[in-house]
Structure formats: C-alpha cells, structure tokens
Amino acid sequence: MTTPSHNDETQAMPTEELVNVTGETPVVRSLDDVPFEVLEELTEAFEGISIVDEDEPEYFEGQILGGYDIVSDDDLTHARRPPLVIEDQEFTLPMDRGDDGAPHRRFRLRRIEVRREEGRRRLRVVLYVLVPMFAIVAVVGILNSPLFGVRTVTVQGAKYISPEVLAHATAQVKGKSIIFGDLHAAEETLRADPWVRDANVSRHFPSSAVIDIDERQPVAWFLGSDNQSRVLDVEGHVISVQTGQPTQYMQITGVGDALAAGAKANEVYTAAAQLAASLPAEIEKTVLNVGVANNTELLMTLRSGTVVIFGQPSDLRAKLVSLVLVLRRQDPKNLRSIDLSSGDPIFAQK
Fold first, then answer.
1. How confident is the model at residue 18 (pLDDT cuts 50, 70, 90)?
2. What is the reported pTM?
3. How far apart (Å, rounded) are the C-alpha atoms in residues 204 and 4?
4. CA-CA distance, 232 to 148, in Å (whole number)?
5. Which H helix or E strand runs over 142?
6. Who's near 174: CB < 8 A, 6+ residues apart?
7. Are 51 and 31 in contact (CB under 8 A)?
8. pLDDT tens-digit readout, 201-226
9. Taking phi first (over 0 means left), then psi (-120 to 50 degrees means alpha), and beta for anything else, what does residue 138 get?
10. What domains are there in the chain, each with its CATH number?
11. Is the dihedral of CA 122, 124, 127, 132 positive or negative?
C-alpha cells in the first residue's frame, strides 16, 4: 500500500479549500462559467443555433440564447415572483432567421397583424352603419322630390265651407310629397271651419290626393241679442252668423245669446233645433216655427195659429207622437192650444 506523499497532501489542500459545499447550485456569472458540456446540450436543445455571437462581447447584463433572454445576475440573486407566461404557438415553433442571421420577431409581426385586423374590423363596422344611413337619406330625398309630389287634389262634400279655408287646405297638400306630406295639417285646417263636422285627406298613388269633407247641415236659426241671426245644426252648433234672416231654415222664436260661429247653443236652443229636424213628414208642412219661452220651455206654432206647448225639453219623441195622433182626430183650425207638457194632451178650443 502506497502512502501518500507530503507533496500530494499539499496539492490536495488547495482543492478542498476551493470547494464550497453549501448544498446550493452555483450561480452562472457569465457564459465563460458554463461548462462546455452544458453548452453542447444547449446547442442541441436549440437545434444547432449558435449560443455565442462572435460580434457580441463575452459578458453583459442580459445575454441572448437563440433569441431567448437570460436574466442578469441581479435578477438571479433576488427572489421574485415569476413573470406571467402566455403560451403561444409562435413561441414553440422553431424561429426563423433573416439573411443577416438575426431572428425574426414573430410576436411583433403578429401584434402588427392584430392591429391591422382590428382596423379592418372597425372599418367594416363603420361601413355597415354608414352605407345604410346614406341609402336611407338618398331614398328619403328622392321621395321628397317633386318626382313623387301630389299633382292632383280632388275635393268631395264641399258646399258651405269657406272657399278661403278650402284653398288653404288644398295648398297644404298639392305639390307636397305623396309619402311624407303632412295630410294631418290639412285636415286640421278644414276642421277649424264651423261648417265642417269632420274632414279626411287620403293619398292615392302615384300623385293624387282626395279631400273628403263631412259638413254640418243647417236646420234652424234664431235671433241673437245683437240682432244677428245664428244658424244651428242638429247638434246645436252655430255654423254661421248672418245679418239677415235665413228663412230657408226653421225659425226658433225668442232672443238668444250672441254666440260666435263655432260655439254651441244652450240646452233649450239645441232641443229646439233637434225638434225642427225631427218633424214627421205628416205634420211638417203644418208647422210655422218652433220657439223658446222663458229660456226654459219649448213651443211650436202651427200655420193655423194653434200653439203647441212641449214644456221642458225632454221626451220629445213621445210628445211628437201624441201631437200626430191629435192632429189626425182634431182640426187644428178649431184649437187655440195643445198642451203636451204633462204627457197627456190638453186642448183649448178657440
């Protein structure tokens, strides 16, 4: 057995002092500290890509291995939370190199492509919104043009309405768009005339319109406190104010209020107008006029001079039936009055 010499022990001592057995993995300070075998393994792992570029310095804070960054010493010696890693196929595929040997930055190129795609998507959204809007504006402009304007206006049912009102309503329709013309405005213009009960304006494609007027029918008239005549329809509306006496209608005797055209008479005068419009044909020619007494009761005067008392303006239909039956049995020339106010006829002989 050979005893180690003094020189062998001396040579072994420095080796033991250089070994630092702490259980820790030594930190790689630079590529020079990496064993050659490790470099070969890394070279094979990165598919033969050179680890060290001859043009780069041997040591700097951040080294690049085949396009991948190696953290600096400071990062290795300070414990930190690992950075967030996003897996992407672009990082797992082999990296291409350009003509100059530098690796392509596929991630940067992909970001550029993503931004371009976002721009194209925004452009598509804008086009999807603007194109229909421009189309709608164009169609509306065409429909509002004289090409689709009303050229012919036909008026139906106009007899008593003011010619000025009718001309104004016609002007509101003629020449306007057959689609977007404001026909409601023309209808309101017509309804403002006291003679008009209702009005309707209708479109008839491609270029005509019809004005249909439902006028009020005059049935009676009375003299107002201003000595002017008021013509009433069956609903008691004052449809005309005249200075003369419109004798073509049934007269309501008595003096009423000075109402303006378009106003409505009170209950008694309205009932008198309804009575005048409801006379049976059998007795219509025998009636001279109807009247209002004390502004509360209805009267009727026959051409024979006989006065018919209706009393309160109620049950007019039943009272008219009673009057017809009386006149069938009695000669009105022999009667001074017929009182129907209580329901049963009461005669007064001449």
1. very low
2. 0.59
3. 127
4. 42
5. helix 106-143
6. 150, 151, 153, 209
7. yes
8. 999 988 899 999 999 999 999 999 99
9. alpha
10. 24-95 (no CATH), 147-215 (3.10.20.310), 220-349 (3.40.50.11690)
11. negative
